[in-house]
């Protein structure tokens, strides 16, 4: 699997050093493995240092226009000038350096939506080929900065995985295990059953000692005496010993990992108890000390150290919870926004917490109840209904070694991709055509890639995917609507027709009119965006013509001749034109969104009528 890492670049000088490093001719086959986006390439046959200077000048041009528009005083150490991404490939991927460079280029272009300048350099001086990517922190229009957060980090990894899979599928022959194979494997596999038991035990145990007692009751034996922890089940015919690192490769199961897991649960429980009963962070720290919890505060982060009198376990705030960050900023905002629910004196902390803890654990299973509860859990788990949906070949985007990508609808004129793994898939050959059986659980989650805008990437629940696939393919029987729904649908229909101000027009005519209006608005918006982009480029040139940096000025003169700019043009006049176009765009976008909502409502109503007519005809034929 491809691994991606992100680093923020602080300082223009460091950005230039980084450009110089990633373009190294010895690592990039004499500059042959370099690609870029959004750059003004004013050199025909640049050498190494000329190319470094040219890329740096392109980034500086962006910076200067942005700084002239937004004269912000940012702290030196907090200002981000670029984003550095390393995309590493395994030698087993069997991809050529040119393919790897293309993967990097396509990944970043999709991630940024083509709004930011970037460089991709592929290094081939090591056994594993890897891309170094530099994205400028300011967009091509010099209007905004790239905000790097969890969602963007997730999108980077997901997009990188998808594009890499598509590229790898061309040369790696797929070895498929179908849904049928997976079901056989799942029922007989010792590793799967052992993981299920351990997961159940972790969820229903109070602490590590309770976990060990219940594990014995559930016929799970553990050996922590060696380098790798070992597990096996005493009630299976085959007494297969399985190592902890084979059960969970990311975080191998071991005595330490289990102790960390239960320590995190305990710390979260203490914080849940103390936060409403503390009037400040210092008060929280003092009260936590009575419960064996120490909070070691740094500038931004906090380490939580839990002690039981014999040993200490330290957990950083980033690893503590997915729900809350629990850093210094979190506690500052918490105590500003919340009042003390209950005044608690230090002498009462331990007694009150024990009562709170006993209430929290009142529903926890006892050692004697664990076996019966697990059997019930297994029955329910295996009974979770899987929906089978047939997908036509036209809906498949690409088949890869471990599954396939299917096209899904994400709104008017918007298409997305969802990955279906092999174990949820069967392939049927029918009359020289392939048909795909997809098995989807309602509770599963699927990542949806938006083809045009990575900011719209999201997760979709299995139940929503089932609805969409069955709606597209008409593969589930029609369900009768209750009269109240019919009434609401009729009201919705009347409201829409009143909004559209129509007289004696069929639904299909209305749909065609709406589609035509939307298409025209789409063309108008594209034209306005292109005009705004040109004006922003003009603004960048005018600002950089006044620059004291000779290289930046040289680039600006080159761009000025390309744009055929008059010397009378001022930055104020250009900014005025940009504001006019922006107002027009805002107005048209609002109109566009309203038309799309109307069209989606109309399509639902037309579809509902067709379903109703089909059902009526089926009833007559019966």
TrEMBL record:
Q: Which stretches make up the Group II intron-interrupted relaxase LtrB C-terminal domain? A: 487-605
Endpoints of the signal sequence: none
Domain Group II intron-interrupted relaxase LtrB central, chain residue ranges per copy: 385-470
| Record InterPro entries | Endonuclease_MobA/VirD2, LtrB_C, LtrB_central
Write the record's keywords in alphabetical order, separated by commas.
Coiled coil
Q: Which residues form the MobA/VirD2-like nuclease domain?
A: 69-165
* Keyword rRNA processing in record: no
- List where this protein forms a coiled coil: 511-548
Protein name from the UniProt record: Tn5252, relaxase
